[in-house]
Amino acid sequence: MLDLIDLGNLTVKIALTIMMISMTLYITKVGVDAVQNTANNVDIPIIGSLAAFLGGAAEVVSQLAGVLAGVLKTLSILLLAIGMLHSVLLPLLPAIFHFFAVMGIIILTCEALLAAPLWMLWHIRLDGNDLIGDHQKNGYQLIFNIFTRPSLITLSVAVSFAVMSAMIFFKNEIYGIIVEATLPDSGAIAVNILGMVALMVVSAYL
Known about the structure:
This protein has helices at 2-41, 45-54, 57-121, 134-182, 189-205. By secondary structure, it is mostly helical.
C-alpha cells in the first residue's frame, strides 16, 4: 500500500514540475508576442532593437513555445489525475466501502426499530402449526443480519487490505517486466515518455 502511495506522490510531483515548465513556456510565448506587438505599434528604440535582433526567430520561438506549452499542459493534467488516483483514491477505497457498509448497518437498524412493533403483532397469529411461520421468518433474518454484519464488515476490511496489498505487490513486480518488453531500448525519448504514460494509464485502469 505504501508503494502505491509513494508512486502516486512521485507522479504528482512530476506532473506539477511539467505544469510549471508549461507555464514558463506560455509566459515566454506571451512575452515574445508582447515584444513583437510593442515593436510594431510603439516606437521605442530598445524594444525595436530587440525585435530586430530576434527577427524571424521570435515568431518561431513563440509558436514552438505555444505548442510545447499545450502538450505539456495536457500531459501534466493526465499525470496529475493518475497520481491523485494512486496516492489518494485507491488507498481510500477500503475505507470508503467500510463507511458505506456502516451506514447500511445504521439504516438497517432504524428499519428494524420501525418494523419491530409490526413484527411483534405477527406473533399473535392463531393459525399455523409452526412456532416461526413464514410471516415471522423475515424478522428473525433481519435481526440475524444486524448482529452478524458488523463482525463480517470488520473481517472484510482486513481481508480487503490484505488482498489489495497482495495485488499491488504483484503489479509492482510485473510492471518492470512489462516496461522492458513493451518499450524499445534505443528508441526516441518522446516514444518512451508516451509509452510510460500509456502504461501508467493502463495500470491505473487495472
